[in-house]
Amino acid sequence: MLTLEGVxxxxxxxxVIQGVDLHVERGETVALVGRNGAGKTTLLKTxxxxxxxxxxxxxxxxxxxxxxxxxxxxxRGITLxxxxxxxxxxxxxxxxxxxxxxxxxxxDATRARVFEYFPRLRERLGHAGQDLSGGEQQMLALARxxxxxxxxxxxxxxxxxxxxxxxxxxxxILQRINAEGITxxxxxxxxxxxxxxxxxxxxxxxxxxxYSGTAQSLRDNRDxxxxxxxxx
Length: 232
Known about the structure:
The chain has helices spanning 40-48, 70-76, 93-104, 108-117, 119-123, 134-147, 164-179, 191-197, 215-220, 222-229; strands at residues 2-11, 14-24, 29-33, 53-60, 63-64, 78-81, 152-156, 183-187, 200-205, 208-214. By secondary structure, the chain is α/β, with parallel strands linked by helices. The chain folds into two domains: 2-77 and 150-229, 3-Layer(aba) Sandwich (Rossmann fold), CATH 3.40.50.300; 88-148, no CATH class. It has a six-stranded mixed beta sheet, with helices on both faces. A four-stranded antiparallel beta sheet has the order 2-1-4-5, covered by helices on one side. Strand 7 (152-156), helix 7 (164-179) and strand 8 (183-187) form a beta-alpha-beta unit. Helix 3 runs parallel beside helix 6.
């Protein structure tokens, strides 16, 4: 479904993503892990066209999307759930969800599915985004992504700043979403979360893929964990 071939991207003259090759098959959950500053978020933004690839090629569902605008990429079926959630803080939960349906045209059935996954959001419909807890904001961010009716969800730091019990609940929801046929590329700093959710993993370090393999092979490879992820 998604293929990156020799992708390079920059912030100004800073060369952040350096020749990345990566692929995600339809129906998979794939994790991209690495230390802070490894380039994980930049790679997701490059896929979305928010940061432009200066070299290499990005294909989605067989189509070259490297030079397409972000809104065109989104309409082709990719959605980004960004780091730090990026919800509309002064809009209510209901208004945030309605905004998410404007481009996708998601109807009542899709909205009903959102409340099956996130029943807490139904209880908080009239509350402003800024008044939600961190976990509720993450639920809202994921719900907005789901309402875009994507084929591929790019999720940046699912577990960031959340209590372990809530992370476990969100992991269960992502597994259910994936089982419905939505492919997931997950950026995650918590290795255990990544290994629990993903079938395959990539390790990114200083903008380069340093390791790729199954989740189990990464779990067993202590050398890679220590060298690139700082696992003691």
